[in-house]
Amino acid sequence: MCEHLDRATVLAEALPYIRKYSGKTIVIKYGGNAMTSPALLEAVMGDVVLLRLVGVKVVVVHGGGPEINEALEKVGKVSRFVDGLRYTDAETMEIVQMVLCGKINKNLVDQMGRMGGRAIGLCGLDGGMFKAKQLKRADGVDLGLVGDIVEVDPRPVVDALENGYVPIVATVAQGMDGPSAYNINADTAASKLAAALKATKLILLTDVRGLLRDPRDEGTLIPKVQVSEVPRLIKDGIVSGGMIPKIDCCVESVRQGVTDALILDGRVPHSILIEMLTDKGAGTMIVS
Predict the structure, then answer these.
(1) Cα 49 to chain centroid, rounded
(2) Under 8 Å between Cβ of 263 and 284
(3) Residue 168 vs residue 283, higher pLDDT
(4) Which DSSP state fits 146?
(5) Does 1 score more than 80 pLDDT?
(6) Beta partners for 285?
(7) Are strands 81-82 and 172-175 parallel, antiparallel or unpaired?
(8) Residue 85: its H or E element
């Protein structure tokens, strides 16, 4: 009896949040450990299916770094990164496109279908969704075929949502300054797409609990950050290293009209549901 009461209490707690988000659009960037662990993959796909069933319009944008690394190793290529961005020559781009738009994307579609969801796989090339030019860094470092998104056409995603599908989007973009496609950072792509969709929420699944005052102590999580606070947090060194581009993506999406953006620990099973449908919440939320 106690177990049934606990379940009923959880459902009752979720009801106001279901009302709040039903009919709204959220964008989830999916990557990191949550992609490499079968148990976490199942939990994330299950969360997405449940949210869709209660009326939330969910868009999944995915990366695939570990699988790209593995594919490159098989052909004898060494992965090289600059500030977290993969140097992408022509041969690497072919493999990126093959792995992201092919293997990973369709595996995620298949997994969601097996859990009762209706997903459709897309990439940034479809319908000219993502258009990009070569990324030019201020320090002049050449990253090869890494793109900077200059235009987003969300219509392929909107069409999929209106027909009851969960769009699962691979981050490859159409080149505007040459014949090649471009490799796009998944956090950046998710942020740009969320803004174009006028999404209510952007969620970046990562391999950390969120923004920590002390990176060595997960008990120092900062649950909420206002956009105006970010420059001071960077100056004080609280936002540093690989967290800087993630926070920047969140800030940019909020400035472009997304209600809030969240850095969420993808290592925790059902962290998406904990954040969206409970009083507890999780991760670090960036708000205007």
Answers:
(1) 16
(2) yes
(3) 168
(4) B
(5) no
(6) 224, 262
(7) unpaired
(8) strand 85-86
The CA dihedral of 285, 211, 33, 259, to the nearest 10 degrees, is 20
Rounded-to-integer distance, Cα 189 and Cα 269, Å: 24
Residues 101-107: contacts with CB under 8 Å, at least 24 apart: 101/125, 101/170, 101/172, 103/67, 104/35, 104/62, 104/64, 104/67, 104/170, 105/62, 105/168, 105/170
Encoded tokens for 179: 């014949």
Tokens of 41: 């993959």
Helices (H), 155-285: 155-162, 186-196, 230-235, 243-255, 271-277
pTM over 0.90: yes
Please answer whether residues 28 and 56 qualify as being in contact, where contact means their C-beta atoms are separated by less than 8 angstroms: no
How far apart, in whole angstroms, are the C-alpha atoms of residue 262 and residue 224? 9
Residues 101 and 189 sit within 8 Å (Cβ to Cβ): no
Q: What is the pLDDT of residues 96-149, one digit of tens each?
A: 999 999 999 999 999 999 999 999 999 999 999 999 999 998 888 889 999 999
Q: Are 285 and 262 in contact (CB under 8 A)?
A: yes
Mean pLDDT over the full length of the chain: 91
Identify which of 124, 6, 143 has the alpha carbon closest to the alpha carbon of residue 59: 124
Which H helix or E strand runs over 68? helix 65-74
What are 59-87's pLDDT values in tens digits?
Answer: 999 988 888 989 999 999 888 888 778 89
Residues in the chain, how many? 288
How many secondary structure helices (H) and strands (E) does the chain include?
A: 11, 14
Query: Two tokens at 255?
Result: 């400035």
